[in-house]
Structures are given as structure tokens and as C-alpha cells.
Fold this protein.
Amino acid sequence: MSDVSSRWCDVLDWDSQFWGLTVARLRELPRSREDLVAITEWCSARGVDLVMALVPASSTSALALLSSSHFEEMDRRLTLVGTPAAASASTVSTSHTVVRVAHDGDKSRLGDIASVSHRDTRFYRDRRFPASRADDLYRQWITNDIDGRADIVLCADVDGVVVGYISLVINADRATATISLIAVDPQYVRRGIATSLVRQGAMFCADQGVTSLSVATQRDNQRAMAFYHSRGFRVAHEDVWLHRWT
């Protein structure tokens, strides 16, 4: 986040540099047409190319206002919450899977997996982003997590081949944690590898004193929803990602 901010928006330095655009995010939701004008004028004065907004699905008036001002819905995001105890309870047999802490030497392989594993997200749904650059975004995301943005990155090996990962961030309260990214190589799905990763990640969280574990996924990702529900996660809230290009 940059120092270029107002009541309404923050210019996002990292995002802007990555995309080669001036990208901002709403920090407060509009309540009137006058608020929309203020947002538009602030963005115009600073050459903002893209404004992103994360809005609770229950905030129907704000969603209607933003939609009337050319904000387009890109994603319905569900946040699910569970406990490390429930998430680590699975007994699926994965005898050929070894889960270990990822290191610098895994970056290239994990980046390859990341670049093909998150294509149902808003960065692909918004066709103004080049798909190849969105691939690069997730490659960079898992790299940054290994470099310390996450508290731990675990990877799964099958017969000596790295086939998946999970990265976890322990929040400032130290009692809650978030799954930053999780993915399995498409050639290795439905073999219990994601279960092993979540189980080991949950055990790490429990060892750190974490009592609540959350993860976000798309509302229409039924496979992910079923996976997390079967491991004790339940929907806590729904949010909507909106983009407006200027």
C-alpha cells in the first residue's frame, strides 16, 4: 500500500508495479451519488487505471451504487472457517506422499504449479488482464510466500516429485490463521494430496496455538466447497470483488 491515499481509496504500489498500471482499492464504500463523484474525481486526478472494491454481499445498496458507476462484478468470494483439530482429523491414506517445508530450491517447481492452478479467480475472469500475466501473478505469489510473506509453505512430494503446496499466514492475533494458497498439480489431483497438505498445515497451526483456520474460495467452485465442508469448514461470509477500469 502506498502513501497515495484518501478517505476513499489507496493506490496499491505492488499491484501497480506488477501490472504496469495505476491500481487502487476502495477503502470505504460509497453511500450516495456524491460519494461516487468524489471517488471518480480522486481517481481521475491521480491517473488511476483500475479501481478494485471488495464489498460484503449483504451491502446491497453499495453494490447497486457501484454497479451504476461502471464497477463490474468479477468474483463472489466465500470465506470458510474451521478449526485445526477438525482439519487435521482426516485419515485418507496417502502412503506415497511426503509433506515437508518448502525451500528456495522448490520455487521454480511450485511456481509452475501455481501458474496453472488458479484460473478460476478474478484475474482471469477480468479479460483486461493478460492471462499469461495472471499466470505470472500466482507464480510470484507462491514465491513471495516462500520468501517470508507466509509463516510456512509446505509442499507435497510423490516419489520424489513436488506435486502441490499449501501456504499459511498466522494473523496478528496469533489465534487465527489463513490459507494463503493451496494447489495440486493437475496430473496428481484426486489422490488425497490436498488432504495431506491441509492436515499437515492444520497441525502446524495447532502447534502454534491457532484455534481458527480460514480459507477463501469462489462461490461457484463446488469441488473446493465440498472439499472444505468435508473437513469441518463452514461459510462465514460472502464478499463480492468489483473492478472498474477508467
In short: The mean pLDDT is 94.
